[in-house]
TrEMBL record:
SUPFAM superfamilies in alphabetical order: Chaperone J-domain, Thioredoxin-like
Function summary: Plays an important role in regulating the size of autophagosomes during the formation process.
TM stretches of this protein: 521-541
Name under which the protein is recorded: DnaJ homolog subfamily C member 16
């Protein structure tokens, strides 16, 4: 029987070719007894020589298709056997008949087609619509997600004969890989030209792998085994470590250095399953993965020690205790959902070490008002052997007192000195609650230090119980700096490995791809080099001074109207009242307290000199008192003689202000009179008398918490009929 093959780009120009004319051995130039290595070597040499992008011969495309089809047959032992016996290229059909009835079986097969050609263009398969990618969706969702799982993307178009021809293999591959966690995408070259250009795909069909934001093109014959291997090759090397009796102890004990839990997979197969590799890739930043071959004679001691059932795959997860796993799953068919849930529930050690800011943010998130509070119990300790008993006792305490609202962690004082200095401790247990992304925390240290004794455990347990009953138990506040990244040396090694993989990819693209497909990679490399050297040059020639304080303007006759009376709606001016004697000390303290709020565009910061405008504050407070009396309210609070240290949040448009009064925190921080609440008459009386005796550097100790309440909108608002003038004569007459 005769089949037809297109010999030009016009579908009507066809010539006949019989099955007897086709011999894959002759095409590749190998004998019938050639080994798989010889066949593969011959295929690579010929593919490199006859690739249409490299060879401008008019027959290069047809020759390349024949070479690829020949390799597809001979690389599969079953197809090769059928061809040797019967001259067939399929498992069940003769060469000619198979091509006539099944059409495009492989991406690189010659353009054999049947009656379906005359029904072209066809409507798109409805099942493919859920995989269609758009430019915005790709950049916002798929690209970031490629750092957690690889993507296999097909570039197609409506008028594409070879796209029909690879469809059966593509569907089989998607059916196999998608349940394992591989992302699937389809890009229509006709409708998503912008996305195709971003990927570097300029022809259909193309198959692309995407991992860690890096694009890799598939160049082999489109068969399911090749596509599966392609996805596996996208993943970084050494994701899973081979574990035996010789190295399992060092592997489990390495949690001290890696600061991660360890997972061991016991399985009968010596090859690491793709599902396990994909899980290891998704959680590589949190957990270490190892694999034990149950059939290996060098793993018998491991199997006996952990009593492993050899009839089903088993996963063990270890944390600080290397003798006993904290979690176990065992099943004949481990599914992705089960493995993901198993690992995600154990992402952190019982007491992880804070090695960077990202880990701190995940373990101890900033307080959200619509969620429950999260408290971080932090042990500040050292790396020497003398600290090991205390550290182990802290881990035992954390394991016995795990609660949803508590997170236990520790830091090395030598590695995180700025953090320890901010908390004013070098060796202690500190309970803290994060209040803002700028580093604001409330904290309280456990008295007596920590050496792991039973008395220390009892004292810590007692303070945790008090904290859950009274959230105001945390009496101190501080602004924490960003944590030092202790994993920076490891990051350099990871960067070098990534650079090595990029070099290999460039080499591969030089062999198989044209320059248009290489443009995204080259653009990325040159952009990275430009940014790297540009940053070095900029830092070398321009070193702007570091700003530690917020800029504060003075309220004068010139700035008073624009900064208050005619302040834009929604804007608030936070004004500090000071005197000539207290100006330097109060301004320094004021700038430090409000610095974390200086990024808010609706807040302005000013100060008012009471020595220059001594009648303004009394006039403002009297206007509030007059308004209160006219409404039948009374305020028995005495006016202080010294207004230095008072802070007002003035809303010029709505004519109200919130008042911060200096509170005494120098001697007794637990004294109830230090609170800013106005609910007790006795508290008002004592506060006025004490405010005059406060040392200057203590007057604004609670301003940071008052600013938080201002941002929350929970401070009382005092209405004024009109803003008093800064003119002393006018205020004195009124």
């Amino acid at each position: 029987m005769t089949v037809r093959r297109s010999t030009s780009r016009h579908p009507g120009m066809c010539v006949a070719q019989t099955a007897s004319d086709y011999d894959p051995y002759k095409t590749l130039g190998v004998g019938r007894g050639a080994s798989q290595a010889e066949i593969k070597r011959a295929y690579k040499n010929l593919a490199r020589e006859w690739h249409p992008d490299k060879n401008k011969d008019p027959k290069a495309e047809d020759t390349f298709i024949k070479i690829s089809k020949s390799y597809e047959i001979l690389s599969n032992e079953e197809r090769r056997s059928n061809f040797d016996r019967y001259g067939q290229m399929d498992e069940s059909q003769p060469f000619g008949q198979s091509q006539h009835h099944h059409g495009f079986r492989s991406f690189h097969n010659s353009f054999y087609f049947d009656e379906s050609f005359f029904h072209f263009p066809r409507s798109r398969d409805f099942a493919d619509s859920k995989y269609l990618l758009h430019h915005a969706h790709f950049n916002s969702d798929v690209l970031p997600d490629s750092h957690k799982r690889p993507y296999l993307i097909k570039v197609t178009s409506e008028w594409c004969f070879a796209c029909i021809h690879i469809e059966p293999v593509w569907k089989e591959t998607v059916k196999e890989l998608e349940p394992l966690g591989v992302g699937i995408g389809i890009v229509d070259l006709g409708f998503e030209r912008r996305l195709a250009n971003q990927l570097g795909a300029h022809r259909a069909p193309s198959i692309i792998g995407l991992v860690n934001g890096r694009v890799t093109f598939f160049h082999q014959a489109v068969v399911r085994e090749h596509l599966r291997q392609f996805v596996e090759d996208l993943l970084p090397h050494k994701l899973v470590e081979r574990i035996t009796d010789d190295n399992y102890l060092s592997y489990l004990d390495n949690w001290h250095v890696e600061n991660k839990p360890s997972v061991l997979l016991f399985d009968q197969v010596p090859i690491v399953p793709l599902l396990y590799k994909l899980t290891a890739f998704a959680f590589r930043d949190y957990v270490r993965f190892g694999q034990v071959d149950q059939g290996d004679k060098h793993c018998t001691r491991l199997l006996r020690q952990f009593n492993i059932n050899t009839y089903a795959p088993t996963m063990l997860l270890f944390k600080e205790d290397t003798e006993k796993p904290v979690d176990i799953i065992q099943a004949r068919g481990l599914k992705k959902q089960i493995m993901d849930e198993f690992v995600s529930n154990n992402k952190f050690l019982q007491v992880p070490r804070l090695v960077n800011q990202r880990l701190f943010d995940e373990l101890c998130p900033v307080k959200q008002f619509h969620r429950r509070r999260k408290y971080c119990v932090l042990l500040i300790t050292g790396e020497d052997q003398a600290f090991l008993p205390g550290n182990k006792a802290f881990v035992d305490f954390a394991s016995a007192n795990r609660k949803e609202v508590l997170r236990f962690a520790y830091v090395y004082q030598r590695q995180q000195q700025p953090l320890c200095q901010a908390l004013r401790h070098n060796q202690a247990v500190v309970i803290l609650e994060r209040r803002s992304q700028a580093g604001k925390v409330l904290y309280r240290s456990v008295s007596g230090g920590w050496n792991g004794s039973e008395e220390d455990k009892y004292r810590l347990h007692e303070q945790l119980e008090l904290l859950q009953k009274d959230p105001t138990y945390l009496s101190s506040d501080a602004t924490l700096p960003e944590l030092n990244n202790e994993m920076a040396p490891i990051f350099i090694i990871q960067w070098m490995n990534a650079a090595y993989e990029y070099i290999l990819q460039i080499y591969d693209d030089l062999l198989y791809s044209n320059w248009r497909e290489m443009m995204p990679i080259l653009s990325l490399i040159f952009s990275a080099l430009f940014i790297l050297f540009g940053t070095v040059i900029i830092q070398a020639f321009s070193r702007p001074p570091k700003k530690d304080f917020v800029e504060v303007t003075e309220l004068t006759d010139i700035t008073y109207t624009s900064n208050l009376v005619k302040l834009r709606p929604g804007h608030i001016n936070v004004v500090l009242v000071l005197t000539n004697a207290s100006k330097n000390a109060l301004l320094r303290k004021y700038a430090k307290e409000v610095f974390s709020f200086s990024g808010t565009q609706t807040l302005h910061f000013s100060f008012l000199n009471a020595d220059k405008h001594c009648y303004w504050m009394p006039s403002l407070l009297r206007s509030v008192s007059d308004a209160a009396e006219s409404e039948g309210q009374s305020d028995d609070e005495e006016e202080p003689s010294d207004y230095a240290g008072h802070v007002l949040a003035l809303n010029g448009h709505k004519k109200y202000f919130c008042l911060f009064r200096p509170v005494f925190t120098g001697d007794d921080p637990n004294d109830s009179s230090s609170e800013t609440s106005l609910s007790s008459d006795s508290r008002r009386k004592s506060r006025s008398s004490r405010a005059t005796s406060i040392e200057v550097h203590h007057k604004l100790d609670r301003l940071g918490l008052w600013m938080e309440r201002l941002m929350e909108g929970t401070l009382p608002r005092l209405q004024v009929p009109a803003w008093p003038s800064l003119d002393e004569t006018a205020n004195r007459d009124s």
